[in-house]
Amino acid sequence: MTQPRWLFGSSCLTILTDRTTTRGQYDLIETYFLADKRSPLHHHTRYSEHLYVLEGEFPVWAGENKVVLNAGDRFLIPVGIPHTVGVLNNCPADGLVLSPSSSPCKTPLNFFN
């Protein structure tokens, strides 16, 4: 769908499908995190985010909760909850992010300027 794009030097995002192919229903993004990296703390004002781990281990901090996801695990981050996702060991990790279609996200930078 799109060329992979590096975000904040920590993860590579590839849009697998978006509103143009799902009739405005959802976006599906593959997220590859480098070892010992994580996303900046951020929140989404208009949508929740559903994470699914393909390979590796993703620690997720969402509000007051911290969970460690492994391959096959999933986690829902509700709308408005500050969160960060990353990898805290020396092994990269790969996962999928499913969210309602192309809503803006509150981060220090726009994901796809």
List the helices and strands and how they pair.
Elements: E1 5-7, E2 11-17, E3 26-33, E4 49-55, E5 57-62, E6 65-70, E7 74-77, E8 83-85, E9 93-100
Antiparallel strand pairs: 1-2, 2-3, 3-9, 4-7, 4-9, 5-6, 5-8
Pfam family, one: Cupin_2
Domain Cupin type-2: 38-87
Protein name: Cupin type-2 domain-containing protein
In short:
With 113 residues, the protein is mainly β.
Write down the secondary-structure element order: EEEEEEEEE
Strands side by side in the biggest sheet: 1-2-3-9-4-7
According to DSSP, the number of beta strands is: 9
How many domains make up the 3D coordinates?
1
Query: Which quaternary structure do these chains form?
Result: single chain
Structural class: mainly beta
Low-confidence stretches: 104-113
Integer-rounded radius of gyration:
13 Å
Most strands sheet: 6 strands, antiparallel
Which percent range describes the beta-strand content?
over 45%
Q: How many DSSP H or I helices? A: 0
CATH architecture classification: Sandwich
* Percent range of helical residues: under 10%
Average of pLDDT:
82
CATH fold assignment? Jelly Rolls
Assign an overall shape: globular
CATH class: Mainly Beta
- Note the gap between the termini: 17 Å
Mind explaining what this structure looks like?
- It holds the Pfam family Cupin_2.
- With 113 residues, the chain is mainly β.
- The protein has one domain: Jelly Rolls.
- Helices cover 0% and strands 46% of the residues.
- The protein has strands spanning 5-7, 11-17, 26-33, 49-55, 57-62, 65-70, 74-77, 83-85, 93-100.
- Strands 1-2-3-9-4-7 form a six-stranded antiparallel sheet, with no helix packed on it. Strands 6-5-8 form a three-stranded antiparallel sheet, with no helix packed on it.
- Strand 5 (57-62) and strand 6 form a beta hairpin.
- The protein is globular and about 40 Å long.
- It starts with a strand and ends in a 13-residue tail after the last strand.
- The model is unreliable at 104-113 (pLDDT under 50).
